[in-house]
Write the structure tokens for this entry.
Amino acid sequence: MSNVTLYSISYDLSHAVVFAVGSLAYGSWRAAIDSNAVVTTIAVLVFAVILLAASMLNTIVLIWYERKLLGRFMDRRGAMHVGYAGLLQNFADGLKLFRKHTFAPREADDLGFYFGPTAYMVSSMLIFGILPISSGWNSGALPLSLLLALVIFSFAPLFIFVSAWSSNNKYSLMGGMRSAAQMIAYEVPLLLAVVAVVLVAGSFDLSTIVYEQQNYWFWGPLVVALVVFVAAMLAEMERIPFDLPEAEAELVEGWNTEYGGMLFAFFMLADYLRALVGSILVVLLFLGGWTLPTWVPSAATSFPLAGIFWFMVKTYIVFGLFVWVRASLPRVRTDQLLRVGWNRMIPLALLSVFLAALLVSARCLPVFGCVPSLGG
Amino acid sequence: MTEELTATEKPSDNPVLYVARPMATAARQFAKSLLRPSTIVYPYERLEDPKFREQVQVASGKPIGVGAVWDNYRGVHALNIATCISCNLCAFSCPDLCIEMVTVPGGDPKHAKKCPEIDYGKCSYCGFCSDACPEGCLTMTTRYELSTPKRSEMVYSPQKLYEVYRTKLPMNPIRLERPANEDSILLDPPLCIGCNACARDCPTQCITMLEIPKPTAKPGEKLPKRIWKEPVVNDSDCVRCGTCVSVCPKECLFWGSRR
Ligand code: SF4
Ligand code: SF4
Ligand code: SF4
């Protein structure tokens, strides 16, 4: 297994830069510049920038990926024209939005109107600082990282509501209200499904949860929890069939009706960032994160950054599933959504917790094997 | 494919089937679209290409663009300037008044050659002009690409229409079935002053001015001041464009049946 991780790359980069700068300085300055603290600080900053760039890039590629997949599901071809197979189309769209003037309605509350999208965007990006993408990913070494990620994740409806309310538009407001109602209906089963995973893994730390899946991935024994989690995640991400807050057939464009230009781009990017985070959470909690089953030849796991590679492959497959759902199912009504949330999902989620408890007390399963921390 | 995607398929009450069935349909569609997409990548691939005309099918056994629709397509006009006789019939028959007759080089000094200039911003592709053209030099082609960033480029000069003619695209000479025009140009002799305007402007040069005997004036009667000639129309050469009728200063030419 190679030891090249993203952090080691950024550390080396920062070391080289600091060394180069230090060699230009003299005396006590040189010692100050060359100190380990400086190197580490810059390494962390470089790491953060790489992370930011990578997450933005991934988001944009994700939009492309969704457009292409959705196109095929609808017997179209998706974006074709700009770049190879339309790969650069979203960059062109982004540039266009970037150049546009941003208007605020006259009656809008400016503070909320601008705060909403910014906070929505920032909170979505914040989660990337927490999620571990491969082993040795020390940016997320928090004992409660899963909890923190979910907390930040569920901030979003609040910001949506703020921006919807301050837009001073009835459609925006309705969208915001729906978003809030949806959150209450889906937060509970989502967290209960997570509880099932946490029970089995015995930790709230995402890295530990992945580590616990070395014998078998959790989706097998915890399939009920997986179904609940994916459905609740769809609602959390406000994607079809649960995109009631946007519902462009009923609410113009839902809560972002009044937004245009870069603010709209913020919403769009943040939406896909959240979709990315959702897919990543599914991969981390149920699909073994960056690990591969032991029967996979070691050549497939030993090249540099193999962990990140396999992680992204899994993430894109999970996102493909979300797109598949989007292409197949119609949008549900509000009452249907709430009924499914309270009447179907919560009992299912409770069942999954119960099954997880059984699994914990059984310690080992005939087909799957044992959970490491439970004495396997 | 159409049989599988009937609209009558009702959503199931079973929650598992409710989700699973549409997903299966979508997956089938996805696979089909990957292997055999229903769309072509238009500016790069075209339906004119026989390869795609056969490949892309609306329903089984019914390729797009083959048969009546394509062969009867009315697109941009093609104009053969050489055979145009400047009869004005195309402009006359256009319901949208989008044809203007503009002078092109090649006419004689007395009788300028005028050919149609078509404003595609107004044209409704009815084909009346092509139908009316007596010489068959204005036809409609299968060209359909007209988008341009400038409105002025929507106006096709005769030269540009001639360029279209030279591309040798499939032409669609529109000939509506209808009884031939039996009417002829008739003259109301007492009104004619023999001015030669009709003979000068007749695009087919089928009017000849024939001398008529100058009557001897009776005493006290004043002979009209005129040239003692009268137009005679060669009916088999006349394309019935009506130019003579409209240029006659005395309105003495008219349409009528010889019978
Ligand atoms: S096709 Fe019809 S509308 Fe167009 S120029 Fe000819 S007569 Fe006019
Ligand atoms: S109808 Fe034909 S011959 Fe007459 S002016 Fe038009 S194009 Fe020329
Ligand atoms: S209608 Fe008159 S101008 Fe036209 S071809 Fe006949 S005689 Fe000539």
Notes: Residues B 84-90, 115-116, 132-133, 135, 137-138 surround iron/sulfur cluster (ligand 2) (CB under 6 Å).
